[in-house]
Amino acid sequence: MLETVKTSNLGYPRLGEKREWKQLLESYWRHEIDDHQFEIAAKRLRLLNLQKQLAFGVTHIPVADNSNYDHVLDTMAAFNLVPERFGSYDRPLHLSEYFAVARGTDKNVPADMTKWFNTNYHYTVPEFDHTQPRLLDNRWLRYWQEAKDALHIDGKPVILGPVSLIKLGKINGTYVTEADHINTLLDQLLPIYGEVFQQLAAAGVSWVQLDEPTLVQLTHANEVLPYQKMAAYLHRVAPTINIVLQTYFDAIDPFEAVMKMPVQAIGLDFVHDHGENLKHIQQIGFPKDKILAAGIIDGHNIWASDLREKVQLTKTLQGYAPKIWLQPSNSLLHVPITTKYEAACDDSIYHALAFADEKIKELGIIAKACNQQDVTKALTKNQQALNHLKLAPFRHHPNVKARVNALDESQFKRKSDYHTRQKIQAAALKLPFLPTTTIGSFPQSATVRAKRAAWRQGKLTDQAYDTFIASEIKRWIRLQERIGLDVLVHGEFERTDMVEYFGQKLGGFLATKNGWVQSYGSRAVRPPVIYGDVYYQEPITVDKSVYAQSLTDKPVKGMITAPLTIINWSFVRDDITRATVQNQIALALREEVLNLEQAGIKIIQVDEPALREGLPLKVRHWQAYLDAAVAAFKITTTGVQDQTQIHTHMCYSDFDDIIDTITNLDADVISIETARSRGEIIAAFEQTHYTKQIGLGVYDIHATRVPSISEIEANIQRGLQVINPKQFWVNPDCGLKTRTEEQVIIALTRLQAARDRVVLKHQEA
Ligand SMILES: CN1c2c(nc(N)[nH]c2=O)NC[C@@H]1CNc1ccc(C(=O)N[C@@H](CCC(=O)N[C@@H](CCC(=O)N[C@@H](CCC(=O)O)C(=O)O)C(=O)O)C(=O)O)cc1
Ligand SMILES: N[C@@H](CCS)C(=O)O
Ligand SMILES: [Zn+2]
């Protein structure tokens, strides 16, 4: 006898429909509101999110999935695990102490952040160097109680599991991978998780969602041991709590071992699993005593589901697991909140979109269909919407498809090898020893944003807006000249965002009005939607670069975003392969690169910061991804003459495992982040005997604190110990758009002075 199909959610976006949460955080940071006002407003937003899910009929509503900055930081703060420099506590952290860890202070650099699996969300990296874990704050109980008291919701607290917490963190600057380290830390953490669970049990909590996303990265059954130990412990100390062991972003390889764990439900991703979770269930079966929490709706993309197909999938799953919860494949943190602000876009796209709220509604329809309720109308409407998009003529451009199919070897190769190019470029550019440059963007000041807002609202003409952007470019060219930088940039003032901007300019993209997704803390991005074949409409960046170059004798870098970063930070159509979409983007950008070159731009930077984060979670899928990434980068960049210098830039990455890919990109110069990761990255380049030019980030742009000349000099010297000075460039870690003008001028002046000191010492030696 089949049980009623229930619905569940894994996490709801935090931003608020109109980014109210962002406004709230930032007004608190600006001291416009006090703690009390902050708490009242934050509670209102939390309850609003819960109320919505209640209204949509979700059976198992997540609680404590909210955060004041980041959920990993919340876990660290609750367990006294913040980095040592921020102190050790025996009471819950005050809001200002919590934000100090996240954002840094005058004295302390903030805790390190990195990408959350293969998403564009950043989490705070735990540091386990001096851990004295203890429970400071059972936030899971607090938020469960809040939902119960205010809305009578018996919520499902979401807690990041201890093994994943450990593996997402570092000891002595290195990610925790050794079994011994994992076990030692687990022994320290389990009693604390036990306390949390016991308190939840005492309060009457029925279900806890225990997220262990690292389970999808395992390859062998013996790696499941710490997870088993953890589940057995929690079951022993809090037997009345039902645990849903939640995985996402891929399939579980050691399937049988995980299925044996003493939990009451297992959450599996049936969207990003390459079909493997279903295959495992069909071959191995699903434990009869457990609930299958089936992630059947794509929580990482924004397309409406094919509901008939999902009903069919659910019925198939019911053949193996009679007790089912239907849920998104992962937390809805990674998609915008509602499509209702997008109604102005083409109807055939609009009706085929599903953001968080629409996804939750989809779950309700599928559940009803499986529970024998009549949803014919909803299913028909869904089929019509999908068909309209599929057949929309503006989606298909046969000539684009033909160009991708006709790609040949000549479009993947520079004319000459690096050493030949290097000589030609050196003669043409005549750059000094240890050239200085920046990564591209300068402050997106309140004035820049206000002018853009006025222009968008029609209060400023196109011409007035262009004139304003030109005046900013000119002002910053002069500033860069005054500081003495060697290679200049135009500053990217015209761009809301390095991906969204290209989405606004290329054919086949839709730029959303309100499709905000949290990137880190209060910061958000609006990923554009790739709905059709991508094509080049007209020059995108050429006029800005040419104008900037006309103002100075120093070289100005052209600045574009590379295909993998565009695709990884967009929502991508899912009816053709990603490799095809990537190559379409690459062919369009190739035209832009050639136009820049033809217009006299001698250095062109092709930013690829998201290449590393897009790596599939399973190593066996890496090579195909990396090969396709290299191909797209080469299509973009290899059309130019030898004397045109191609730069690329990557940040927020661990480069060790993609160093061969970096070499294969064949860029003449790469600038990378290093200031924050304290030099681990440099070793990777040393070991590979990297022969091309490298700009090491010697100023951490993510910290509000500006380093001294000596600190920057030390960073340069550290790099020079392992990298040949002839290959070395001096630059910040990343773009400067989030910094203030004052900070940037001081920082770059010091960077230039540090470079001059090093040059002097080098000449004296
Ligand atoms: C390098 N990074 C990037 C990532 N992903 C990207 N897609 N782009 C990136 O650059 N991932 C990794 C990192 C993440 N880094 C950041 C850094 C900074 C931000 C950020 O500051 N985001 C802003 C929003 C930026 C933006 O688009 N601003 C618009 C203004 C939009 C707006 O607020 N409009 C208002 C009205 C106008 C107004 O009052 O200003 C409205 O629509 O209501 C612009 O420049 O015009 C943020 O505030 O969060 C993100 C990721
Ligand atoms: N050119 C971009 C790169 C960011 S990763 C910038 O400077 O903002
Ligand atoms: Zn960057």
UniProtKB/TrEMBL annotation:
Cofactor details (free text): Binds 1 zinc ion per subunit.
Gene Ontology molecular-function annotations: 5-methyltetrahydropteroyltriglutamate-homocysteine S-methyltransferase activity
Cofactor(s) required, per the database record: Zn(2+)
Pathway membership, UniProt: Amino-acid biosynthesis; L-methionine biosynthesis via de novo pathway; L-methionine from L-homocysteine (MetE route): step 1/1
Gene3D superfamilies per record: 3.20.20.210
Binding annotation for L-homocysteine: 439-441, 492, 607
Enzyme Commission code: 2.1.1.14
Binding of L-methionine, residues: 439-441, 492, 607
Residues at which 5-methyltetrahydropteroyltri-L-glutamate binds: 19-22, 115, 569, 613
Protein residues bound to Zn(2+): 649, 651, 673, 734
Residue stretches making up the Cobalamin-independent methionine synthase MetE C-terminal/archaeal domain: 434-752
Domain Cobalamin-independent methionine synthase MetE N-terminal: 7-319
Catalyzed reactions: 5-methyltetrahydropteroyltri-L-glutamate + L-homocysteine = tetrahydropteroyltri-L-glutamate + L-methionine
Keywords attached to this entry: Amino-acid biosynthesis, Metal-binding, Methionine biosynthesis, Methyltransferase, Repeat, Transferase, Zinc
Biological processes, Gene Ontology terms: methylation
Catalytic residue list: 702 (proton donor)
Family: Belongs to the vitamin-B12 independent methionine synthase family.
Protein function: Catalyzes the transfer of a methyl group from 5-methyltetrahydrofolate to homocysteine resulting in methionine formation.
Alphabetized NCBIfam families for the sequence: met_syn_B12ind (TIGR01371), PRK05222.1 (NF003556)
Protein name stated in the entry: 5-methyltetrahydropteroyltriglutamate--homocysteine methyltransferase
Organism: Leuconostoc holzapfelii
